Amino acid sequence: MSFFEGTGQSAGIGNAISLIDAVYRWCECVKGQQVVDRALKAIGDSLGSEALAISRVRIGAGATTRILAYDAMPANAPMPRLQRSFAVSILSDFLASARPGTVWLRSAVEVEADPALDLFHSRRNMRELAIVPLATEQSHSDFLEIHFANPLTPGQHAVLNSLAMTLSEAWRKRSEGIFVSSVLSKEDKDDKPIYGTDLLGHRNPARLSRAEFRICLLLTRGVTLSSICDELSIARSTLRTHLRNIYAKTATENLPDLLYLLLRKPAESLVAPKRKIA
């Protein structure tokens, strides 16, 4: 039962419990103690939504989007399941400036029509999309996207506004690397890992340059950034440039995310063929 269904005292208590459970599961999720799917399902159940997603949109040229989606629609159903983000379509020029914890409704903003969103909502008989900015950092912004079958009532909007602030604040305090680790875990379950071989394997799936490869190899050995500069005789600014290139090639956003990707498999499988680190 969603928070907005039912009448009477017993229904009100049940609705409140559903909402509390959603907040609890979200807080456990951002601490890495519960899988994202369960948290999104709990939020969806409490709000009356069957399709939700956490999306990460890289800001600037060559913007990319990664998504963690929950969709109650069975995988073998003839209707489309939620597989992409629509945050860019709704927020447009406000993508990087939207205040975390606010609620942006598709019906309340003036944006150009997105054919993909129109088709998805049409096929699924949905009529509203709410975007909640969770956090904005230098390189990317994170969003919670919630699709609804019907327009929100004033009461629904008020509850969603209050919930959005709580979810955003919890997300701001999330464990480092939680988003990327969840993406990788989901891709592994779907048998669609980002790379078919180790990132530092001999096939070099991310197409790292020689310098980038050496930096990643040193990171897996626990070498600090300052020591990497000394080891490779490069300036700190040069190292920052290499790291930006590595983030782009590996679809990571920062050093904790990169380290998780490098170390997510047993150490012995990450060791590259012995070579001199020059």
UniProtKB/TrEMBL annotation:
GO terms for molecular function: DNA binding. One of its GO terms (biological process) is regulation of DNA-templated transcription. The keyword Metal-binding does not apply. Residues 201-266 form the HTH luxR-type domain. InterPro entries: Sig_transdc_resp-reg_C-effctor, Tscrpt_reg_LuxR_C, WH-like_DNA-bd_sf. Pfam families: GerE (PF00196). SUPFAM superfamilies: C-terminal effector domain of the bipartite response regulators. It comes from the Bacteria. PROSITE patterns: HTH_LUXR_2. Keywords: DNA-binding. Coiled coil: none annotated. This is DNA-binding transcriptional regulator, CsgD family. It comes from Tropicimonas isoalkanivorans.
